[in-house]
Amino acid sequence: MDDFTPSHETLAAIAARHGVSVGAVGSILPGAANHVYALGDDLVLRVPRTRRFLVDLVKEAAVIPAARRAGVRTPDVVAFDDTCSWVDVPYMVLERAAGEDLAGLQPSAADTERVLREVGRELARLHRVSPDSAGAPAGVPVDDDAGDPRVLVRRLRSGGWIDSGTADWLTGWFERLSVHLPADPPRVLVHGDIAAQNLLVRARAAALTGIVDWGDAQWADPATEFAKIPLTGVAAMLDGYRQETGEQAPAGSGPRSWEARVLRVHLTWALYRVPDRTPQPGRRHWSAPPAGRLLGLLRFFASGPPSPWAELA
Prior knowledge:
The chain has helices at residues 8-17, 54-69, 102-105, 109-126, 149-158, 164-178, 231-245, 257-272, 292-302, and strands spanning 25-28, 34-39, 43-48, 77-81, 91-95, 100-101, 188-190, 199-202, 207-211, 218-220. It has a 5-stranded antiparallel beta sheet with strand order 1-2-3-5-4. A 3-stranded antiparallel beta sheet has the order 6-8-9. A two-stranded antiparallel ribbon has the order 7-10. By secondary structure, the protein is of the alpha+beta class.
């Protein structure tokens, strides 16, 4: 069986196992990988859409407890069964965090910054988990580093996607950014999909209540964690991150390593989308359109960003 869409009978059986009537089961806006249902007011059921997404659910079952031990606000796993021995689909039941996702709320700029500072603090706690940590989760893949982005620039130029002048300009930009990069970036546990739709927020208080959807977790350079939030929001995240780690910003207005590392990731990922001609109508994520990231970079730098970002352009 490859299609894991649960039947009415399956939903009723899972709900009953957790003391919930089938009448209290309701569909929640699904993700790309999972069917998602509310089991009453306190629980959430997630069922992978097909067999190929099951590996991510298995990974989540290992990663979520590790994230919670690190102090990250994420709903706990109540039940997990990937055997299909009790019902005909694999599934996970999680506690339900209060609030709505940030993508649907569209709060004010000030409230958004407040939430993103909290997210930064949560990420700093998560990134203390390394492959050598006690209780490090099993089954987490290592990020396949894309390597030198200048190779990507050359490929885009040879393929006719950019002209030689633009290629030289981009190569120079990457070389200036590389001065600020650590020689050997650490590999830590990253969520891998820190985006507005995975951040649950209590609207009235503009307070983060939970980070959800850990299917993209991996061991990676922590700078990649900031790639799915527009650069306009990254400054607030880094501020919260530094508050939690106790890292002091260097004196003066010179460029900072974190900003350079994050900008390099944003620029690299934007260039990977240049040959993509596939539109993404109806997708909520800001980077879903092929030109979304490039336009995000243009918008950010055209707005006159503060130091140290301006010095990195």
